[in-house]
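pasting 3-beta-hydroxysteroid dehydrogenase for the record, 262 residues
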Amino acid sequence: MASALKVAVITGGASGIGLAVAKRLVASKAWHVHLLDLNTAAGTSAISQLGPSSSFHPTDVSSYASLSASFTTIFAASHKIDFVFANAGIPESTNFYAPKTSSTTDVKILPPPPNTACIAVTLNGAINTCVVANHFFRHSPLEGPRALVITASCVSLYASGFLPIYTASKHGVLGFMRAIAKRYFENDGVRVNALLPGTVRTAMMGEEVWAKIPEEFYTPVETLVEGEAVGKALETSGFNVYSREQIEFSDECAAEVMGRSQ
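structre below
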């Protein structure tokens, strides 16, 4: 029998935006929230704050097997999934431009390959989450909201020379959302949208800062979960919210070619 509460799954849910959204959902008394995160200590701490309407599942979103196992466990217990917040992501941890070899004169000494863990978690993890989420949405009761929100970033729109690999991953996240949104909705009734946090720099913020964030910040997420939006990209800059549309086609030829691929 399906749970009386709506069921949410949040990747990267042990801290930052993920945990903040989880707290809002639990406070509404309408949701049971499942947090997926690689940080076991943070996850355990998070559910101690959230209470009995929450569960924690140690998960590596870059591993399809790990992610699938967590979703399978959740669905076996709840018999439905209503909302998935594909929020997990990490920044790049090294200076992309720093010299990578001990020699600047020997052309045969090549630098090591770039560290692309950021892409594995941020982009591949989001893709994995969408694939697994849609599978379980298809097996959930039709009356559920079937909402899938992906955390993109302001660098999905603006290039950041300081974080080029992270910029690439977040550009990919936004492009992927826009590519699948129409098909996911038409085929399975799943509403896919993206949240693009801007000047609210979540990785640098402690819980005491989250406690001071005005109510308006949470409006975009709640709108995307409970509303009718499909394929929307909502950018937050400070506490302002902007709907960022896809750029117009350059000419009729581009519109014809890309229109056929929708």
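The beta strands are 6-11, 31-37, 54-58, 83-86, 147-151, 191-197, 233-237, 240-243.
The chain has a mean pLDDT of 86.
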